Amino acid sequence: MDRFNVAVDVVQNAGDLLRQCRLEDAEICQKTSHQDLVTRWDRKIEQLLRNEILTAFPQDSIVGEEYPPEAHRTGSVTWYIDPIDGTTNFINQHQNYAISVGCWEGSTPLFGLVLDVERETLYWAKRGGGAWQNQTQIHTSGRRELSELLLTTPGLQYTFLEPHPYQERMIRLSRKVRGVRCLGSVALELCEVAAGRADLFVTMRSSPWDHNAARIILEEADGAIFAVDGGELPLNQKSAVLALNTADLKKQILSI
Ligand code: 2AM
Ligand code: CA
Fold first, then answer.
1. DSSP state of 159
2. Which of 92, 206, 237, 241, when mutated, tests ligand 1's pocket best, judged by the most ligand atoms within 8 Å of its CB?
3. Could you read off the pLDDT of 117-136 as tens digits, one per residue?
4. Same structural domain for residues 19 and 122?
5. Domain of 18?
6. Which ligand neighbours the alpha carbon of 157 most closely?
7. Are 239 and 227 in contact (CB under 8 A)?
8. Pick from 7, 150, 189, 213: CA 20 to 30 A from residue 243's CA?
């Protein structure tokens, strides 16, 4: 099996486990605060993904949220994996969370998978092959007027309430767009832009495992993704992120 098929299999199996699991309170831990949580299931699912991927492709590297990278990987392929993107939603809602797997050869995208676990919806893209929601091809919206755009952001307080260099600009932007939505998952919100149900996305906090799968899907859907200052989004560092239904909107959004 090639990497893509291995990835689809393991992501679907992991989704089946999460859909059936019943989370106990004792399985929830704080990482840095009461707003930054991890569960036994985040760890268990990341272990499952790592084991399956490394058994099939032992030279590949894995960058995941819950475990440090393993040493001595010689290949040029890196997998960015988040076992549960939207852990708070997983805990409180048991919906609106995703498994995110992005596969890159150096800085070249190979494919991205984002499984909306509870909706059993797989967003996926291979480089050059368009973007897909299950068997249906998806595309970003054609909206270009600021007053018609829906802005999605996963952390309302970090985007609008906590002080940061873009805070005033974000508040101005929120007044100019048609509405603001918050789903609570970087990967799922980027897929909302890819599918044309949202038009732009901003987050002040995102890690490579949060966005490196969905960015492939978004770009294959003709969207564009940047660091929040409009520069290139780094592959291997945490970053604030700006994503758009088209690169043509970038100048206008950055000038607000
Ligand atoms: P996570 O669920 O994998 O932690 C909403 O908080 C979104 O922002 C989620 O996609 C979450 O990913 C992501 N996120 C990124 N950095 C975060 C952080 N430091 N604390 C909490 N959520 C973070
Ligand atoms: Ca996570």
1. I
2. 206
3. 999 999 999 999 999 999 99
4. yes
5. 3-138
6. 1
7. yes
8. 7
Task: Read off the tokens for 32.
Answer: 């840095």
Residue 65 CA: which ligand is closest? 2
- Rounded to two decimals, the pTM is 0.97
191 and 74: one domain?
Answer: no
Residue whose CB lies within 8 A of the most ligand 1 atoms, among 205, 207, 228, 238, for a mutation test? 205
How far, in Å, is the centroid of ligand 2 from the Cα of 189? Answer: 14
Q: Please give the single-letter amino acid code of residue 121.
A: T
C-alpha 69 chain-centroid distance: 19
Q: What is the pLDDT of residue 234?
A: 97
Helix (H, G, I), strand (E, B) or coil at 70: coil
96 band by pLDDT with thresholds 50, 70 and 90: very high
Give the Å distance between the CA of 134 and the centre of ligand 2: 22
Tokens of residue 246, six digits: 């088209």
Confidence of residue 70 (pLDDT cuts 50, 70, 90): confident
Place of tokens 């909107």: 249
CA atoms within 13 A on the CB side of 89: 21
Question: Same structural domain for residues 7 and 134?
Answer: yes
* Cα–Cα distance, 126 to 113 (Å, whole number): 9
pLDDT per residue as tens digits for the range 233-250: 999 999 999 999 999 999
- Do 39 and 153 have their domain in common? no
24 phi and psi angles, rounded to 5 deg: -95, 150
